[in-house]
Design brief:
It contains eleven helices and no strands. It is mostly helical.
Length: about 325
């Protein structure tokens, strides 16, 4: 379970989100595949090995209004039907693919990358070597380490996207005794408009990039199937393949930004959650930490709390 699974199930059907996350990747894939078909693919069903993009342009120019409407409606239906699968796509990119594919190699690569980054966060013992440049570089490396990798070893995941989201779940609210995954469904409704807009925008960007990566990957497979036997024309499949790689990198960056937004939400609005729960405001950080731990234990394990609501303001 992760924070990406705790939003409104109907989020994907909201007009703006559906357009960015669902419709645009689906439309791009449909247009690319249709152009190949109009140009003469699949090659193994016809004689010759030459694609004619002039013919594809002619077919596209001759489309009638009814055919265009039919294409738009078809793409929209596919986008809507696939909307409930958005979470599954993100989880797959996090490393939750079928077990048959394994995850050992991915984990090994991610641990190696984290291992290369960790020494850069350590300051030298020699004070003479503590120049502003060295301190700054160590600080940047430490921030990158915290944002992109979870601290506990058992939370490591086999992909960069999975580790960026795991780092968010591990660190958001931790300094206040809050379990982010447990608390987020209760904190999100009390967020201020500006913070909520920031969280939603960055979540949408992550989902859009992830959806584009998955769609482009599938388009690559379809393109290879259509271009088998087309000699060097099969290199056209590199276009969606490259888009898939770039989109995945964008999804990782967006996940890091989303994590920062979620952490800020905990920093700024955890007190609003206590007010909404009609709980007394803690007098110091230690009391706040203990109170939050009791809340998480109650929500996670059903451990009852004894609260005097007369103290609440």
């Amino acid at each position: 379970m992760d924070l990406s699974s705790l939003s409104d199930p109907l989020d994907s059907l909201r007009t703006g989100r559906l357009l960015i996350v669902g419709y645009l990747p689906t439309a791009a894939a449909a247009i690319f595949v249709l152009i190949l078909v109009w140009a003469g693919a699949p090659m193994w069903l016809r004689h010759g090995d030459h694609l004619s993009f002039k013919h594809a342009w002619t077919v596209a120019a001759d489309l009638g209004a009814g055919e265009i409407v039919l294409l738009v409606v078809g793409v929209t239906l596919v986008a809507v039907v696939l909307a409930p699968l958005q979470l599954s796509m993100i989880r797959m990119l996090e490393g939750g693919w079928p077990r048959a594919l394994g995850s050992g190699a991915g984990l090994a690569v991610q641990r190696w990358r984290r291992g290369r980054l960790e020494p850069r966060t350590i300051l030298p013992d020699n004070r003479d070597a503590l120049t502003p440049v060295v301190v700054t570089e160590a600080g940047r490396a430490g921030a990158r380490l915290r944002r992109r990798y979870p601290m506990p070893e058992h939370l490591m995941r086999p992909t960069a996207l999975g580790n960026a989201l795991a780092a968010m779940e591990d660190s958001a609210g931790r300094d206040y005794g809050l379990d982010a995954v447990i608390v987020w469904p209760r904190l999100y409704p009390v967020l201020g408009d500006k913070v909520r807009a920031m969280v939603d925008d960055r979540r949408d960007m992550m989902d859009a990039a992830g959806r584009m990566a998955v769609t482009a990957g599938l388009t690559t497979a379809v393109s290879i199937g259509l271009l088998v036997g087309a000699r060097w024309w099969i290199l056209l499949a590199l276009i969606p393949a490259g888009l898939a790689v770039v989109s995945y990198a964008g999804a990782v960056s967006a996940a890091v930004a989303y994590g920062e937004a979620v952490r800020s939400a905990f920093d700024l609005h955890r007190a609003d959650l206590l007010i909404a729960l009609r709980l007394p405001a803690p007098r110091n950080s230690g009391q706040e930490y203990r109170l939050n731990q009791e809340l998480c234990a109650m929500w996670r394990q059903g451990v009852p709390m004894d609260v005097d609501y007369r103290e609440a303001k």
